[in-house]
């Protein structure tokens, strides 16, 4: 019934390009003088459209900073960031806010749902605020994909953690963003609920053509991705295609042996 929505990607910014987001020679430094910290050190990366990318690396290696820079939440010190066809470095805050609102979705570790609203109201809230009408057929398909049909009238307190995160995923998907960023989206969930949410993120890539980028420490979570990027000391040091949890774990152990964990 929901297969009628044939091309969910049509109409997005830069919909024709194979790269959803791109970093070129990105440097991000915090502070100055003796307290200066280089969080990203000349990072080049292409995030493929319609793929699931995981970002891994030791604590403090720059994962969140890279995600925030790619999402236009943080301003780079030097280098360029493109989202779709738009060069975002140098954009004024107003245009950046609009770009984030219209083209980027977020899923955080804490679900960030409004307790007084039902699941459905939470899902459509960003569109309501933006004065956009939800596309009913698309919303239907999203609700179906994340398995929330029977829970739409429930408030967050009446839902399990996994279900709440599925509402947050549906909220991100509902606006049909060009790219969704997740910062440890399963960090607050037990392994069963985490697996469920990761399964839905995977489905949103496979069935809805969504582009997903997720920061994680968890090899099992990373194994849901098509590609894993490894950061160490603010640099992109390695990547892995079609990962399995064992492969990711082995790679992490190799990094440990090199003394790269902080
Ligand atoms: N606002 C800030 N001010 C100063 N330094 C910062 C700031 N944000 C991050 N840093 C520093 O930049 C570096 C990278 O931080 P970042 O949060 O990106 O790492 P991470 O890999 O996401 O770490 P974790 O896995 O612990 O979340 C760290 O050394 C951190 O201390």
Automatic annotation (TrEMBL):
Lineage of the species this protein comes from: Bacteria, Bacillati, Actinomycetota, Actinomycetes, Kitasatosporales
Entry-linked Pfam families: ABC_tran
Domain ABC transporter as annotated: residue spans: 21-258
Swiss-Prot/TrEMBL keywords: ATP-binding, Nucleotide-binding, Transport
Molecular function per GO: ATP binding; ATP hydrolysis activity; transmembrane transporter activity
One GO cellular component, as annotated: plasma membrane
Entry annotated with the keyword Manganese: no
InterPro entries registered for this protein in UniProt: AAA+_ATPase, ABC_transporter-like_ATP-bd, ABC_transporter-like_CS, ABC_transpr_LolD-like, MacB-like_ATP-bd, P-loop_NTPase
Identification of the protein by name: ABC transporter ATP-binding protein
């Amino acid at each position: 019934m929901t297969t009628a929505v044939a091309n969910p990607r049509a109409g997005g910014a830069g919909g024709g390009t194979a790269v959803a987001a791109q970093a070129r020679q990105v440097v991000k430094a915090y502070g100055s003088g003796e307290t200066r910290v280089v969080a990203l050190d000349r990072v080049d990366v292409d995030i493929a459209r319609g793929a699931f990318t995981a970002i891994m690396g030791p604590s403090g290696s720059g994962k969140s900073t890279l995600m925030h820079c790619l999402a236009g939440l943080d301003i780079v010190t030097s280098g360029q960031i493109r989202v779709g066809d738009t060069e975002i470095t140098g954009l004024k805050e107003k245009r950046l806010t609009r770009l984030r609102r219209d083209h980027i979705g977020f899923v955080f570790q804490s679900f960030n749902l409004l307790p007084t609203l039902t699941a459905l109201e939470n899902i459509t809230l960003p569109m309501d605020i933006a004065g956009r009408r939800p596309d009913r057929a698309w919303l239907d398909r999203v609700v179906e994909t994340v398995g929330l049909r029977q829970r739409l009238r429930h408030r967050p307190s009446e839902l399990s953690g996994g279900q709440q995160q599925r509402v947050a995923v549906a909220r991100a998907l509902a606006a049909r963003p060009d790219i969704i960023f997740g910062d440890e989206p399963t960090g607050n969930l037990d392994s069963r609920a985490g697996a469920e949410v990761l399964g839905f993120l995977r489905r949103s890539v496979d069935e809805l053509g969504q582009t997903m980028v997720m920061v994680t420490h968890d090899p099992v979570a990373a194994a849901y991705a098509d590609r894993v990027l490894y950061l160490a000391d603010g640099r992109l040091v390695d990547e892995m295609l079609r990962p399995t949890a064992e492969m990711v774990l082995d790679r992490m152990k190799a990094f440990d042996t090199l003394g790269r964990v902080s």
